[in-house]
Amino acid sequence: MFSIKRTRSLIDGLLASSRSRPILNWSVTVASVLLCLLVLPTRLPGMEISGIGPNWLLIWVVAWSVKRTAFQGALAGLVLGLVQDGMTSPQPTHALSLMVVGILTARLQKQRYVQEDFISVALIVFGMAVVAETIIALQFSLHGDTGLAIPLARLPRTTPYLTLTEIWNYHQLVALSSAILSSLWAPVIYFPLNRWWSEMELRNQSP
C-alpha cells in the first residue's frame, strides 16, 4: 500500500513539472507500443479465431490517430508497420496498411458522427481491420500477378504458395476474424491511452 501511494506521488510530481512531463508522456507512449508488440504473437484462450488474433498494432494506430492529423497518423502507421515487418516479413509490408489506417482514422469526422464510447471505437477498429487486411490481400494478389512466389508462412496450409482465388477466399476469413477480435479488444488499448493523452494535453494547456 505504501509503495502504491509512493508511486502515485512520484508520478504526480513528474506531471507537475513541465520539464519532466514530455519525457513521462513519451515513456508511456513507447511502453504501450512495446506492450502491443509483446502480445502481438500471443494466442491466449478467447483471443483467437482459427489461429488469428487481435491486431494490437492496428488498435494502437487507431487510438493514436483519433485526435491527431492525417500526417501524424500516417507517420505512426509507417513506424509501427516497419517494426512489424521486422518481426514477420517485409513482403507484404504492413507499413502500407497501417499508414492507410492512420490516415483514414484521422480524417474521420469524429466530432460529428462518432462519439467516444465502446460501440464507436469498436466500429472504427472493425472497419480499419477490414481495410488493413484487404490491403495485405491486394499486395499478395499483385505479387501473384507478376509471377513472383509469395511465401505465406502465416497461413495454415501445407503448401507454401496460394493461388489468386485462394488468397481472396482466405482473406475473407482473416479479415472477419481480425476485425471481430480487434474491435472487441480495442477498449483495452484505446481508453487508457486516450485518457492519458487527454490528461497530458490539458496539463500542457494549463499555465
Secondary-structure blueprint:
Layout: H1 2-16, H2 20-39, H3 56-65, H4 70-87, H5 94-107, H6 110-113, H7 118-145, H8 164-205
Helix pairs in contact: 2-8, 3-4, 3-5, 3-8, 4-5, 5-7, 7-8
Would you kindly provide a written description of the structure presented here, covering whatever features stand out?
By secondary structure, the protein is mostly helical. It has helices at residues 2-16, 20-39, 56-65, 70-87, 94-107, 110-113, 118-145, 164-205. Helix 3 packs antiparallel against helix 4. The radius of gyration is 19 Å and the shape is globular. The two termini are 33 Å apart.
Number of extended strands: 0
Following the backbone from N to C, one meets helices and strands in this order, namely HHHHHHHH
Q: Mean pLDDT, as a whole number?
A: 78
Q: Helical element count?
A: 8
Report the sheet with the most strands, covering strand number, pairing sense and barrel closure. Answer: none
Percentage of residues assigned to helices: over 70%
Distance between the termini: 33 Å
What is the percentage of strand-forming residues?
A: under 5%
Low-confidence stretches: 145-159
- The assigned structural class equals mainly alpha
* Shape type: globular
Compute the CA-based radius of gyration. 19 Å
